[in-house]
Amino acid sequence: MMEHENSNKSSDDYQETTCSIQCDILLQQNQSILNEYLEFCSMRLVLPILNFHTKQLHLFGYSKSNIEA
Q1: I need a surface site. Which of 3, 8, 29, 46 has the fewest CB within 10 A?
Q2: In the chain, where are the structural domains located?
Q3: What is the mean pLDDT of residues 34-45?
Q4: What local confidence, expressed as pLDDT, does residue 1 receive?
């Protein structure tokens, strides 16, 4: 788990998800993965990390509503 400097953020708000990426398949065949990515990013401040070896995109984020409050 990553360390965070801001102690005002509660650890139970922290979320992460992993999306598999299939570069050799058309985007239309990955629509569910793209929808998951967009939904996750639309509600959170996100740090995306792409792992080229496993072809996975790791998303780490906090809820925007808690950050803006």
Answers
A1: 3
A2: 13-68
A3: 82
A4: 35
Q: What is the pLDDT of residue 37?
A: 80
- As a whole number of Å, the end-to-end CA separation of the chain is 24
pLDDT band at 8 (very low <50, low <70, confident <90, very high): very low
- Residues 51-62 as b or e (16 or more Cβ within 10 Å = b): eeeeeebebbbb
Phi, psi of 11 (to 5 degrees): -70, -25
CA–CA distances in Å: residue 5 to residues 16, 42, 61, 68: 18, 23, 14, 17
CA angle 42, 53, 44 (to 5 degrees): 15
